[in-house]
Amino acid sequence: MRKNKLQLIMMLLVYTLFLSCNSKSGNEKEIVVYKSDYQKYIQIKENEEIENINKELHFWQEKYNLAPNQYPYLIELSGLYSQLFEMTGNIRNLYQAEELLLDCNARVNGDHSGIHRSIAKNYISQHRFREALTHLEKAYAVGENKKATQKMLFDVNMELGNYEAAEKILDENKNFNDFDYLIRLAKWNDYVGDLDNAIRLMEKAMKIAEKSGNQGLKVWIYSNIADFYGHNGRIRDAYQYYLKTLKADNNNIYALKGIAWIAYSHEHDIEKASEIINYIETQHTVPDLYLLKADMSEFSDNFTKKKLALNEYFYTLDKNYYGDMYNKYNVLLYAETPGKELKALKIAKREIDNRPTPESYDLLAWTYYNMGEFKKAYEIATEYTINKTHEPLVLYHNELILKANNKLTSENSNISDLVTSIFELGPNIEKKLKTL
Predict the structure, then answer these.
(1) Domains in the chain with CATH codes
(2) pTM
(3) Closest-CA residue to 53 (of 70, 30, 77)
(4) pLDDT in tens, 200-241
């Protein structure tokens, strides 16, 4: 026991030294983000792609009005509304696409696999994963293009925590020359904690995308491999690939968010990050933008500004119905707000019903921890989250729960993993880790 305590103390000392060398205080932070690189992408301008989509919507709507018995027109319209949602963040477009797809599905008596897959894709965006799974099972039973259905079944099973089913699908579809297989195998490797191999697979997939000349595939792989590089501590590589994404798609909001996060999390440059976020807000208003603003305000010790940002977040949620899409964020907010813990508890349990993953059970354990029910938090963590995921936020919560129950040892501590995940966790948790 004494040896374990000494090992833990030494580990904490090394970690404290690491944090002090990477603290906000000095100018030692490597500058990665340069305004000259991203400035041209944050100029207020008309988005020609959105204009073209609106023209297409008008075209297909006119065709449908003239021939309302032509259900394929509904599929075209739903696809365009889905594109608008992805570009603008307007949740009403996603619901409009769902309504059209359900109408279309009813007209064909559920006998088209492609329509079931489209509905499933829509439900994935809404975080309605169980319903997505139901439609994918129907698509598979119909039989048309089973390979496409299997790929989506892998995605949904991962979201639902059905890891054995997801692994089985991978095993049945091995093809190291297939882009879709490689990116899913990369996701699996990331899940099991082999990030280096996940990156190698993504790089292999990137070569396929570039060789294909498919612009959509290139944009997707560049932005996603940037995320992987960031999680692996390769911040400069992540930045370069976000820029590469923007070069291929000047209006790519996802890449701009990634650059803003690098400016904030890696450089602690609130001004630079805020400039990008403020631009994104004019183009793509979604609730989580206000959460990022609140996080940055907290880091700057501007709690009045943080409160205003959180008010904007909840106002946006109230103004639009988002269903269960923001359950995770709401639990984390309510769990850490005195007097709101029971609300957090209710949402956490709902999230477990929706998707019983280690990350969902972590929300429940974290809520009990914040309620002071450390033993209950420990019981949940022991059964559902400890050694069940490599998600940094869950590892951080596990560390605090173990400590609160006097169970933290050198063997079960996640300190080394947390050290390498500081960029992903963000500056506020980095500050909290110093007191761990």
Answers:
(1) 175-235 (no CATH), 323-435 (1.25.40)
(2) 0.92
(3) 77
(4) 999 999 999 999 999 999 999 999 999 999 999 999 999 999
